[in-house]
């Protein structure tokens, strides 16, 4: 059976018509770096899509590492997702409040890593939803726990060693950060040991893949043109990276839309690479 690569996204119109479907489970994935003094859970409590529950990428994460929001084990993911009321037969819809939906993109990728492909991002996110005056509510949702079984898909995640092997073998590493952070002239919100980028990486800022007015992902032909302009060959192996494994997932989603479903995300990204003694930084 062929894959429908359009299933990575749902429109606000579609979701408005399917809000009450029993198999639709909506996750508000809003996340902010602590330095912003904003809190995704607080914003969720203020207003959220009807029936949605909050998914915190810093809590559904590996707590044994100092790196931010790294993937948890399959068992931990299954446990926490089950507590959110999600079962294996559910269609999961993710959104957040950021332009383009980067944290929701991270959650989209995480579900796929743990074997749940029936997941889609709300195109345009909460911003487009509210601009269209679609319904929202303030009452927190307390779902009944469900049973969720996770199965790890190692091909969707890359380690630092995988990145080194990829570059040595002629593969492509795409960095989703903006040009200032990529070349080391702009500091990140994370405190990094070094600035710059992984030598050999190609810079394709994830914001270039999003409509600046609506926050929706560009149409496939426009996406393809962005990748082509950056010199990326979609037929060759690809790993995506960024600062801490969030916006790189938006590149992975865009690649999925272009028929490249197996692009891996470097989970540690620059947060890890910048600390390794045996790696170099390029500026």
Tally the helices. Answer: 10
Radius of gyration: 18 Å
Give helix % range. Answer: 25-40%
> Mind telling me the CATH superfamily name of the largest domain?
Rhodanese-like domain
CATH architecture of the largest domain: 3-Layer(aba) Sandwich
The overall average pLDDT, rounded, is 93
Number of domains: 2
Q: What is CATH's topology name of the largest domain? A: Oxidized Rhodanese, domain 1
At the first level of CATH, what is the class of the largest domain?
Alpha Beta
Strands, count: 10
Largest sheet properties: 5 strands, parallel
Structure description:
With 283 residues, this protein is of the alpha/beta class. The chain folds into two domains: 5-152, 3-Layer(aba) Sandwich (Oxidized Rhodanese, domain 1); 155-273, Rhodanese-like domain (Oxidized Rhodanese, domain 1, 3-Layer(aba) Sandwich). Helix content is 29%, strand content 12%. The protein contains ten helices and ten strands. The chain has helices at residues 12-18, 40-46, 74-83, 102-113, 125-131, 160-168, 179-183, 220-229, 247-257, 269-273, and strands spanning 9-10, 24-28, 53-54, 91-95, 119-122, 157-158, 172-175, 202-203, 238-241, 264-266. Strands 1-5-4-2-3 form a five-stranded parallel β-sheet. The termini are far apart. The model has no long low-confidence stretch (mean pLDDT 93).
